[in-house]
Each structure stands twice: as structure tokens, then as C-alpha cells.
Design a protein that fits this description.
The protein is mainly α. It has one domain. Helix content is 70%, strand content 0%. It has 11 helices and no strands. The protein has helices at residues 4-17, 24-35, 40-60, 62-68, 92-116, 120-140, 155-165, 175-185, 190-216, 225-253, 256-259. The chain starts with a helix and ends with a helix.
């Protein structure tokens, strides 16, 4: 059985970085190298703890998710902020349009990405350019915000954000950083871009994790159950705290500190 301390450390890193604009994949690759935790089992472990982080965001946005699925109705006082006064305008088509480009490109380039881009060097390149892109997105964002609330995001803006999400196929290039900065460039407000980024992360990560898990499920053994469950629970709890904290601090700190 793997060292439980390794599960805790990797779980904390996943929870802190998955939805913050700093790239979880990049940091897990680098920390895995430092901890000497690499190989097929490490890859499978990363999938498991990503599912823990996904669950945390699903818990935070459960009302919005039910609304998107047509179950219940999100009232204005339950919206993510006071600017979301048009409940129900955001629908599944927005989510599909934003997820489709990266899903298609990810399937086409999957073998290339896993074969050539999962090294410490390429991760460092992704981290640097991801930080630069966030600074560019923040400095070049439109002065007049067209979509202050997530329910005001248009289909065109959803497509733009989806295209920017493709940048995150390069390990180290933050997915949330790419989508939030892309949203700013498309005229979406900070909080709306962040909420939309988190919402489209759920189907993206479930699809990616499910695809990888199907290929590596035979690696899971009963002897590693405690190790994997520990990582999952740690990632869930830390991600829950990290996302709530990030949403509270976003208006004050913007993207620049995360880019640096």
C-alpha cells in the first residue's frame, strides 16, 4: 500500500489547484516527480482525486446544476450573485458549446499529448505561458462588461470561452485560468466568467476522468483502497474550501496574483 502521506499531499495539491487558475495537472506532475510517485498507479490515483474535486464543485453549484437539467427552478435570491436576475437563461446548450471544442480536440490529440507533453519541462512551459495569458486577459479585458451575470452569457461568448479552454490541453496551462481570462476577453464579468468556468469544468472533468478510468480500472486493487479513498476525501474537502474562498476573494485580487 502506498504511503498515506503521499495521498494526503497529492490530495491537498489537487484540491487547492484544480479550480484555482494555477493548473492542477502541472502541479501534480511536478509534485509526483518530487515524491517519486509516478507510473500507472499514480496516473490512476490522479483520476480518483480529480473526481473528489469535481464532487466539491457539484456540491457548491447543486442548485444551478439541477436548474440546467430542468429539475427545479433557480430563483434570483439563490443565484451566484445579485447580478444574476434572469434565472434559467443559462442552459445546457451554453455548456455544450463551451465544452465541445476541447473535448473534440482532446480526443484527436490524446495520444500526442500523453506521449509528448507530460514532462516536467513542458509543464513549466505551460505554467509560464498560462500565467502570461491570464495577465493578458486581465489587462485586455473589455472596459464595458457585456455579461455581468452568468445568466447573461450569450452562446457566442460560450463558444469563445470553449475555444480558449483548448489551451488547457497543454499540461501546466490552467483550465480555469484559460476560461476565466477568455471570458474577460469576450466581455464577461469576473464573477460570471468564474462561475461559468466552474460549471463547464464538471462535464469536462467527468468525461476526461471517465475516459482515463476506463483504460486503467484494472490497476485498482483492494489493497490500495485506503490510499485512494484518503486522496479522494482530502481533495474533496480542500477543493470545497478553496473554491468558496476563491469566489470570495476574486473581486479583490483578480487574476494577477494567481498568474504570478
Amino acid at each position: 500500500m502506498q504511503n498515506i502521506l503521499t495521498a494526503v499531499v497529492q490530495g491537498i495539491i489537487e484540491g487547492l489547484t484544480e479550480f484555482l487558475p494555477v493548473s492542477s495537472t502541472g502541479h501534480l506532475i511536478l509534485s509526483g516527480k518530487l515524491l517519486n510517485f509516478t507510473g500507472d498507479k499514480a496516473d490512476t490515483f490522479e483520476i480518483i482525486i480529480q473526481l473528489g474535486a469535481i464532487l466539491a464543485v457539484a456540491v457548491i453549484y447543486w442548485r444551478r446544476i439541477l436548474n440546467l437539467l430542468g429539475i427545479g427552478r433557480l430563483s434570483p435570491d439563490k443565484a451566484e450573485n445579485q447580478q444574476d436576475k434572469q434565472p434559467g437563461r443559462l442552459n445546457l446548450l451554453h455548456i455544450i458549446l463551451a465544452c465541445l471544442p476541447a473535448m473534440v480536440l482532446g480526443l484527436v490529440l490524446h495520444s500526442f499529448i500523453t506521449s509528448y507533453l507530460f514532462s516536467a519541462y513542458t509543464v513549466l512551459v505551460g505554467l509560464v505561458f498560462g500565467g502570461i495569458f491570464m495577465l493578458f486577459g486581465e489587462s485586455s479585458s473589455k472596459s464595458s462588461v457585456q455579461s455581468a451575470g452568468v445568466d447573461q452569457i450569450t452562446y457566442k461568448q460560450a463558444i469563445y470561452i470553449g475555444l480558449f479552454q483548448c489551451l488547457a490541453l497543454w499540461p501546466g496551462f490552467s483550465r480555469s485560468g484559460a476560461t476565466i481570462a477568455g471570458g474577460l476577453l469576450a466581455g464577461v464579468g469576473y464573477r460570471a466568467a468564474t462561475n461559468f468556468s466552474f460549471l463547464i469544468a464538471i462535464p469536462m472533468m467527468v468525461a476526461a476522468s471517465g475516459f482515463e478510468l476506463l483504460k486503467s480500472y484494472d490497476i485498482l486493487t483492494a489493497s490500495d483502497a485506503v490510499f485512494f479513498i484518503t486522496g479522494f476525501l482530502v481533495a474533496f474537502v480542500v477543493a470545497l474550501v478553496a473554491v468558496i474562498t476563491f469566489l470570495k476573494l476574486l473581486e479583490r485580487f483578480k487574476l494577477a496574483p494567481f498568474a504570478y
